[in-house]
Amino acid sequence: MRRSRKIRLSWIVLGLVCAVSLQHAWAQGEAVAIHIPAEPLDKALVDFALQARLTVGHPGVAFKQAHANAVDGTITPEEGLRRLLAGTGYGFDFLEADTVRIRLVAADRAAPALTVEQVIVTATKREAVAQALPYSIVVMTGSQLQNTDTQTPNGLTTQVAGLLATNLGPGQDKFFVRGLSDSVLPGLSESMVGLYLDEARITDDAPDPDLRLVDIDRVEVVRGPQGALYGAGSLGGLVRIITNKPDFDSEQFSASSNYAITRGGGPSYGMDAMVNLPIVNGALAARGVFYWQHDGGYIDDLRLNIPNANSTDTEGGRLALAWQPNAIWSVTAGLVYQDIKEKDSQYYAEGSPALTRENFLREPQSNRFVETSITASAQLGWADFLSASALTVRGLHGQYDATTAWPSLTGLPQGVAAFDDGRGVTSVTQEIRLTSTGGGRWQWLTGAYYSHRDESFRSDLTGPDASGLPLDAQSERRADHANEMALFGEATFSPWPQFSITAGARVFDASHDVTARALATIPGGSFTFKGSIAQSGITPKLVFAYTPLENVMAYASVSEGYRLGGFNIDSPAGGADEDGGKAFDSDSLWNYELGAKTAFWDGRLTLNAAGYLAVWRNVQTDQIAADGSFFIANAGTVNDLGVETDVTIVPVDNLTLQGNLFLNNAQLSHPNPLLVQTEGVLPGAPDISFGISGRYDFPWHRWGDAFAGFDYSYVGRSHLGFDESNSPPMGGYHLTNLRLGIRRGEWQAVLFVDNLANEQKNTFAFGNPFDFATTHQITPPRPRTIGIDLNWTE
Questions:
Q1: Is 453 helix (H, G, I), strand (E, B) or coil?
Q2: What span, in angstroms and rounded, lies between the C-alpha atoms of 113 and 324?
Q3: Is residue 532 packed enough to be buried (19+ CB in 10 Å), middle (13-18) or exposed (0-12)?
Q4: Which tens digits make up the pLDDT trace of 396-454?
Q5: What is the signed CA dihedral for 711, 658, 643, 185, rounded to 10 degrees?
Q6: Residue in 498, 501, 582 with CA at minimum distance from that of residue 188
Q7: What integer pLDDT is reported at residue 306 of this predicted model?
Q8: What is the 3-class SS of 332-358, one letter each residue?
Q9: Whose CA is closest to 581, among 595, 564, 565, 603?
């Protein structure tokens, strides 16, 4: 333990030393290198914002066919804008030191129309416009999250085509992108989707911590494997939560509260607040966020006589301190804390009255998340430098009712029995990278990455012996230590303006050590296990992009993702490797993709589509043993053919409509006979899902500005396991939500209705591993909920 702490400290110190030393070597003046050709004005302003590191806005201004002047040289941003806009009929104002507003100055120009918002993202580890990237990417801005009342990452599944999540409970869910699901069951397999908070990964083999989306700048969802830039655990794609950073120049305050009632359930209520304080104007600022939420339960336990048993309390917050000593360097330190306490689970048994069950004891769950981070960045002129260090600590605990399984597991008479498990995860990550700046035919980035994870796991099965006294029948203790080091990079070459080639790769070396001890009082016996593996390899990607027209791009890509192998402490025949050991193999996924991105009607309509073939070998999957414990097996080979589309249209001013569609056909071949005897399907992966949403803004007489919005989504049918003929069905449900809001000055009130039709179909056919073999389990969505949000922003 002492050695691992020294390793973590040394890598964090190394990142800071590199940051400080580079500051003295590369500090420069305020002039920046600007290289912009004579191109459409809307594109030129985006390029200018990226190169000059400014926020450039143009509310209510559409540029139609306007073209910018070419700008080439090392000049101040103000001079660059003058040259860029000269003679175009547009001017600019600096609202802050780093914020510019573009305005119309020509008197004879017609009033402009609103267009689809262009969003800058960093998913490719450089700033770029999402619509201009040759990748399948969807972005939900902070305002869109607020407009759709998306409070947690799980809520994104109704907004993003192909993004799915299980529904075990807050802080217990797994994400999948493009229906690439290894298993819907919880376990110790590495995540299929890389989940990030700013620069730091916040999941490895633990479930999504379900961080509340308060004071968020945007969420980026990237589809397809991202092994070249992000390493292991990103086979399906990425979900990146980008927070709002401290503002150096202005005080900011906001607060909100909510209250809702659920049909047949308890009330829900909560609050959050944000404060931003400049401490030293232009140099030092702090930003703090606090939130607390109580979600009322809606499952009644009849045997225990507990109505609305599954209520949940979530509390947490973030604190960020930003220091900008000069125009070149900035350093941000952050602290994130969240604690989820769920008093009971949210499933019921098939055959019971809806939303009721008869357990012998409650099944509480808790999930605590703490992260500290330091990010240092510098604009060196020839490149941008970034060092990102993070330390993440998680504690998870759960209890399941094992009463009905107690006789079969122990041979003793039935009595109230509990299965308790707990996990502690401590991980440290360090990344250093350099990214090229400016224009030209070549763009590049390179970096190094290190991670170390210590994980402890414990489980206990307890119940009454023959005389009724407490008995610890089975217990397990396990400790995992994992390390990974990697070098990564990519380069983009544009032989001519309409065409580009991007090639990237990641070279990694990883190791994993396991020590475990299991004890069984009944039937008796114990064993210990020690194992160690080391793996290394390379994951490539190749992307071709062609832009034949100004607003039309086509691309083709090939990329690979991977997850490292590991160990089971105990597993049935077929759960072990072919040599009879306890190891399971690494899996890998190759993705072959064709896509197109288009914009029409002066930017009022965007239509993006992609088709892909994913070839996934040695699929790792979490499975349940006869005693209710989890193990990992290699399932076989999956070939998944799919299509996804996203469309946004502004048909008239103030009305925005969005839609998404996902279709896929995944087949499992060469299956593990432990799981399925013939070809199978992917668990929890529907053949189809789609959604539509809309928002209309309008003035409401003298009361203020108002809006009305809706969103509808459908998730198709699927099955809990690989064998669709013998595993419980789920899916096939519709969800509709409505919003009506009014804003007056600093205040906004929103009336909402979630699950308007009170849909009660099964979203997730799992809840308790000890009833899994004998009882189909049903997890409905939260029943119809009506509530109000009050928001204040200064």
A1: strand
A2: 38
A3: exposed
A4: 999 999 999 999 888 899 999 999 999 999 999 999 999 998 777 899 999 999 999 99
A5: -30
A6: 582
A7: 97
A8: EEEEEEEEEEECCCCCEECCCCCCEEC
A9: 565
pLDDT of 579: 38
d(CA 650, CA 770): 51
Q: Name 107's Cβ contacts closer than 8 Å, sequence gap at least 6.
A: none
Please state the φ and ψ torsions of residue 2, each to the nearest 5 degrees: -65, -40
Q: Which two tokens stand for residue 343?
A: 């008093």
**577: pLDDT strictly greater than 90:** no
**Of 758, 751, 757, 755, whose CA–CA distance to 787 is shortest?**
751
Tell me the whole-structure pTM to 2 decimals. Answer: 0.86
Q: Quickly list DSSP for 433-444.
A: EEEE-S-SSEEE
Residue 556, number of CB atoms within 10 A of its CB: 14
pLDDT at position 182 over 80: yes
CB distance 97 to 283 below 8 Å? no
Please give the biggest Cα pair distance in the chain. Answer: 94
Per the omega criterion (within 30 degrees of 0), is the bond before 523 cis? yes
State the Cα–Cα distance between residues 405 and 408, nearest whole angstrom: 6
Whether the Cβ atoms of residue 640 and residue 180 lie closer than 8 Å to each other: yes
pLDDT score at 59: 52
Q: By mean pLDDT, which of 42-51, 171-180, 315-324, 648-657 is the weakest? A: 42-51
Over residues 537-563, mean pLDDT: 93
CA angle (383 as vertex; 379, 385 as ends), nearest 5: 60
Rg over CA atoms, the chain: 27
CA-nearest of 262, 201, 256 to 233 is 201
What b/e string do you get for 653-668 counting C-beta neighbours within 10 Å, with b at 16 or more? Answer: eeebebbbbbbbebeb
Are 229 and 194 in contact by the 8 Å Cβ rule? The answer is no
CA atoms of 226 and 235, how far apart (whole Å): 7
Look at the chain and count its residues.
794
Angstrom distance (rounded) from CA 388 to CA 200:
7
Tokens of 17: 């030393």
Q: Report the pLDDT value the prediction gives residue 8, as an integer from 0 to 100.
A: 40
* CA-closest candidate to residue 204, choices 473, 444, 512, 603: 512
User: pLDDT: is 58 or 75 the higher one?
Assistant: 75
Classified as helix, coil or strand, 245 is coil
**What is d(CA 705, CA 710) in angstroms, rounded to the nearest whole number?**
17
Going 197 to 202 to 203 to 208, the CA torsion angle's sign is: negative
Burial (Cβ within 10 Å: 0-12, 13-18, ≥19) of residue 1: exposed
Residue type, 251: E
The token pair at 232 is 């292991």
Beta bridge partners of residue 547, listed in sequence order: none
SS3 per residue for 118-185: CCEECCCCCCEEHHHCCCCEEEEEHHHHHHCCCCCHHHHHHCCCCEEECCCCCCCCCEEECCCCCCCC
- Is the pLDDT at 630 greater than 90, yes or no? no
What are the residues facing 669 on neighbouring strands? 637
Which single residue is written with the structure tokens 């005080």? 251
The dihedral sign for the CA sequence 126, 131, 134, 136: positive
Reduce the DSSP state of residue 256 to 3 states and report it. strand
According to DSSP, the residues that pair with 454 across neighbouring strands are 426, 481
Q: Is 678 helix (H, G, I), strand (E, B) or coil?
A: coil
Cα separation, 408 vs 631, whole angstroms: 20
Tokens coding 167:
């529904």
500 is written with which tokens?
A: 């580009």
Average pLDDT estimate for 604-624: 92
Share of the chain residues as helix, strand and coil, in percent rounded to the nearest 5: 10, 55, 35
- Crossing angle, helix 77-85 and helix 41-52, to 10 degrees? 170
Whole-number Å distance between alpha carbons of 593 and 690: 20
